[in-house]
Amino acid sequence: MPIVPLPQFEADLAEYTEEQDRLARERLTPPKTVVCRFGSMKLIGEFRYRLDETPGCGSKLIVHTFRGIEMGEMLTSTCPNSGCGKSISRKEMLEYIDASGGRDFPFYDKGRVLRVATHEDLDAHAECEQSAHGLKLRAREVAEELGLNIRVVQAERILGGETLSYYYLAEQQDAVLPGQPKQEQKRGPDPRLQAGKLRDAMQREADSSGPGGTRVEVRPVGARDEARLTADYERCGQHCCCKNFLKVLKPVPMRAAKQQKATLDPLKISGRCGRLMCCLRYEDESYRELAARLPKRKTTVGTPEGIGLVLETQILTQLVLVKLDFDGREVAVPVEELIDPSDAPAPGAIAAEQRREARARARTADGEATTTRKKRRRKKKPASTEAAAPEPQAGEAAPAKKKKRRRKKKPSSDAPPTTDGQPTSGPSSDRPADDASAAPKKKKRRRRRKPRGEGGTPPSAPNA
Q: Are 101 and 248 in contact (CB under 8 A)?
């Protein structure tokens, strides 16, 4: 039977919850500083907060950063309210930054919170984001007109209009054709000089089209930063790590993919940036610690079964495949059971131990088989609580069974009476004596048995 809550109970619960939330908000004091995420590159900053409102995590704030006035998203607050579930202490924040990259972490502390974002601020920020695509296409046209070998991947205008940033893909080195010697490589123009020419052109265009006061920046980004700006989802179904939470994008070596037994197909281990996926670096340290405990291939090790040669190892399961020297068998041995080859048992002792174990297993199997047969015999014997009837002796009539006794007919009332347990003389007394010497014959069930005397002689008539 389903349990359906009453509407009055639901209303009382909602009223009680709202009251508790209101009291909790009243007990909280406005934070002194808040941690915000801002910009297309998802920069992190801790800014001063001097407002009376108490914002929550995820609130949109208007912040003044080193670039100007722009929109930010509150992540947490560092204040005495630490432990309320919506804030952390400054010590915890600094520990997180140190563990996530240290000095390379994009963290800024020069700025302040101006106000909580209003509907007008949100609409203006949406217009800035929609105009980014047109600005990017215009920058590409200008670069093509100037003959610059530069690729603009993203454009960003902040809310206050103080800064207009263009991001271009900066290759680390030019491609080398197969078979071309290194000293004959032909390098193109310096990307920094081309970025300077593009900045000057876009600055002149911004000054002529606007009221002025806008600073144009052209910043280089790598392949992973390009994915942070333009990518959305990875093949795992989650947001790209570089866009979601990774701030320090370190290179991932091919050694990590080989050590984790990952496929070396570039299409399967490459991310949206075309480089090795960042998730290969998450477990690289654990794999290296586990791999250091395993012996190298083609080395001699000792096992409980003798000396052998290491053929293969498994990092996660910590198993070693060893080929034994004395019989050539391949056994999987845990790394904890490996011993020094000098301490390994001799092949003769191993064979004797195996024979003893085989005999012990055989005896155990025989004992189990004997026990099983005895149990089967006990099951076959019928459970009877009555005592067994004694066997009839020679010359005595077999005792009648219960079933036969039940089927006997009652004696007629015309039969002559008996005295001392012996029948009267009748037709049965006229039988010859030699008939008594014969073995008693089994008669029909429904026919009454006639008594016979011992010794082969008919019973004598009773005295008068």
A: yes
> What is the rounded average pLDDT for all residues in the chain?
77
Assigned token pair, 380: 């076959």
Q: Which residues of 398-427 are buried (b: 16+ CB within 10 A; e: fewer)?
A: eeeeeeeeeeeeeeeeeeeeeeeeebeeee
Domains of the chain: 7-118 (no CATH), 131-172+190-244 (3.30.300), 254-292 (no CATH), 294-368 (2.30.30)
pLDDT band for position 131 (cuts 50, 70, 90): very high
Q: Mean pLDDT throughout 194-199?
A: 89
Q: What distance in Å separates the CA atoms of residue 396 and residue 394, rounded to the nearest whole number? A: 6
Which stretch of DSSP H or E encloses residue 33? strand 33-38
Under DSSP, the state recorded for 325 is T
Q: How many CB atoms lie within 10 A of CB 95?
A: 12
The set of residues, in sequence order, having a beta carbon less than 8 Å from that of 420 and lying 6+ positions away, is 462
> What pLDDT does 1 receive?
54
Looking only at the bridges linking them, the beta strands covering 152-157 and 319-324 are: unpaired
Contact predicate 47/36, CB 8 Å: yes
* Cβ atoms within 10 Å of 331's Cβ, excluding its own: 14
Tell the burial category of 152 from Cβ atoms under 10 Å away from its Cβ (0-12, 13-18, 19+).
Answer: buried
Residue partners of 271: CB distance under 8 A and separation at least 6: 227, 234, 240, 277, 278
Are 63 and 79 in contact by the 8 Å Cβ rule? The answer is no
Residue 71 buriedness (CB in 10 A; 0-12 / 13-18 / 19+)? buried
